[in-house]
Amino acid sequence: MADEAKARGNAAFSSGDFTSAIRHFTEAIALAPTNHVLFSNRSAAHASLHHYADALSDAEKTVELKPDWPKGYSRLGAAHLGLNQLQEAVAAYNKGLEIDPSNEALKSGLADAQASASRSRAAPSTPNPFGDAFKGPEMWTKLTADPLTRGFLQQPDFVNMMQEIQKNPSNLNLFLKDQRVMQSLGVLLNVKFRPPAGDDAEVPESDMGQTPRKEPEVEKKREPEPEPEPEFTEEKEKKERKQKAKKEKELGTAAYKKRDFETAIQHYSTAMEIDDEDISYITNRAAVYLETGKYDECIKDCDKAVERGRELRSDYKMVARALTRKGTALTKLAKCSKDYEPAIEAFQKALTENRNAETLKKLNEAERAKKEWEQKEYFDPKIGDEEREKGNEFFKEQKYPDAIKHYTEAIKRNPKDPKAYSNRAACYTKLGAMPEGLKDAEKCIELDPTFSKGYSRKAAVEFFLKEYDNAMETYQEGLKHDPSNQELLDGVRRCVQQINKANRGDLTPEELKERQAKGMQDPEIQNILTDPVMRQVKKQISSFNL
């Protein structure tokens, strides 16, 4: 995580390990590339190693990300000052003071920059023949690259001398007795200097044993070592941002309740700009877009909320809410069955995040709407009639399975055709699939109560099942609509014969047993037998027989 890498960078900086600090701050920046504090801290670490060009780059990025943050201009001024860009340093410090006039670090930096600029103007006009060797960051690069001078950069007194020479090349005369300066001058000019006769050529490693020299008559005050931005300042800023964003959200919600949708959108948008770590501001704005019929904007906000929620590992309920709103917006835009597919997908994803009744209801409604659209899109009565005729041909050839296939297609093309249901019921009856035949016959009657064929199909199934009373009622119901229908009249006659046969006791033992079994399955008889009073009577009769 970025915060962990940042903490490691701060610890390394505090211990003086600036190289490690830079590495840790770089890791943190890779994880949070818009965090201005990380660039500010890395700029401080670069400046501590006198890598002022890199420090300047990070300082400029800091100001770009957070132009109203005074600390960024302090970093910018320090980097310019290290590069001896005095006018730019003064301008950076002044810019920071415009934002925070009481900032002591900016005031001190400005004073140093102005003092250095004054010394530069007051320096003799005679050009120093070695001045070009000390200009810009190239000086530090050459000294770092040479193995003899690289170690000098770890010695504060040497660094101070080189900074003074860089600010004013005329100061070189003050430090010529120091062998380190002479050695460095040789590296910068690509010339090898021979140490003075009798002088020890060994380069001193510290102030101890260093050749005495006259201290330069220049002001010793320099820019204080930059420190990483304290943690508590960042946390305080973050807390203030969240409070401000929450206030905007409350104003947006109040406007929404008053149905002042434009104002609500403005407040939610402001909250999003202030705090991008709370996706509720995005989902709330999406809700306003949904309410106002701006479905495309709603979908964009929901996608953004889901993506950001994944990055932040937000509450799964918030992610589910965004997906549900997206699905709702998609159903509003649906104009054909395929348009419901992304909506159904959004609802299904929402349920994997958080299963709740509202989303499940919306999913069922979307699936039902998709099915209805598919039926509408498939509806074609002309093709339905053609398929029914094909089924009739197969029926005549006694190819009932093939006939059923074409009758089924006819029903799909025209679900309100009673003839297709009637014909398929006849096929099922021929194949012995009585439950399916009875269901199709009842559907036929439902679609057209005056269609006599539906009654004959239903009664035929009931007669086959030896439910003669039910078959009789069905035939008689059909005769109400078509009194002269011979098929219905013949059916009534057959039912009367079977009923009279049973009443006379002419049934075979198998028929009697089967009839008794069917009677016991009758729901009314089952209710009578399970009645407590009837059970008591049955028990008493059994005791009398004993």
Give the helix level as a range of percent. over 70%
Cα shape = rod-shaped
The pLDDT mean sits at 82
- Give the termini distance in whole angstroms: 89 Å
Question: Into which percentage range does the β-strand content fall?
Answer: under 5%
**How is the CATH topology of the largest domain named?**
Serine Threonine Protein Phosphatase 5, Tetratricopeptide repeat
Low-confidence stretches: 195-225
Number of strands: 0
Radius of gyration: 47 Å
- What's the SSE pattern? HHHHHHHHHHHHHHHHHHHHHHHHHHHH
Could you give a short account of the major beta sheet?
none
* CATH architectural type of the largest domain: Alpha Horseshoe
How many alpha or pi helices?
A: 28
What would CATH call the class of the largest domain? Answer: Mainly Alpha
The tally of structural domains comes to 4
GO cellular component, one term: cytoplasm
Organism: Eutrema salsugineum (Saltwater cress)
GO molecular function, one term: Hsp90 protein binding
Biased composition (Basic and acidic residues): 212-225
